[in-house]
Design brief:
Layout lengths: L1 H18 L1 E3 L2 E3 L9 H18 L7 E2 L8 H18 L3 E2 L1 H6 L16 H18 L23 H4 L3
Parallel strand pairs: 3-4
Antiparallel strand pairs: 1-2
Helix pairs in contact: 2-3
Length: 166
Amino acid sequence: QQQQQQQQEQQEQQQQQQDGVFDDGTQTVSPGSPNSDALEFNAGMSNAAAAAAAATDATYEVQASTVLLDRTNGSAKVYADACLEVGRQLHVPVLDLWSRLAACDEWRGWLNDGLHFTPEGQRVVFNHIFETILTSFPELGNEALPIDFPLHGDIDPTSPALSFRP
């Protein structure tokens, strides 16, 4: 009976690998799964984005369109394009990070191992994400958000507690 249970668990794991990755009951297709292609990946991204949008009343969604699988630019471009298409279908802003990085000669210097960003690469990506957020959702910009506490420079170093009083 134990052997039968183990076989059943193995079959379930194999089926999940074929179907994709399951997260909170929502099926998404992992780019690395055996049966993934751009269309299935697109559908999985759409399902995940729709589930995220339904989770709250006010969801701000920006999808970065870079997915590196086998670390070739051709493969990454296919998945980046799939992300862009999902954004278009859902009418949400999408950062085309793949195209932005590919347009720069120094992009290789922004990766440690072909996949993970160096500190400089992280700064570049952050700046692109921040620009997309400010462009798409100006109400989330620094100037638009309320300040709950005094700015660091406005705190009296001799009597900090006074700076926090209304």
